[in-house]
Write the structure tokens for this entry.
Amino acid sequence: MIVINDEFSIQNNPYGWTLNQYYMSKPKKEGEAPKRTAKLTYHATLRQACSALIDQSMHDCTRARKILRKMDDLLEELVAVAEAKEKACSS
């Protein structure tokens, strides 16, 4: 699972990628506490999941910038892991 922040995460599944967006749901009955709920969307590729995350976060520019910085960091980590695996396979 790739955790972007406390509101978004992306998870690999057998058919592609799942974007999880967490939010506090409204109580169904008076006096109940709000519950942390996840809205799930499914995507064929990691790029599509990332695009959906950006689209969903663009209404708040400050939050979008933070998410984009985090995604840049994660991309660097993924590239490093891929390069290390490629190097290990070629040895």
Notes: Residues 2-27+34-90 form one domain. Strands lie at 2-3, 8-13, 16-25, 35-43. The helical segments are 46-57, 61-90. The chain has one domain: 2-27+34-90.
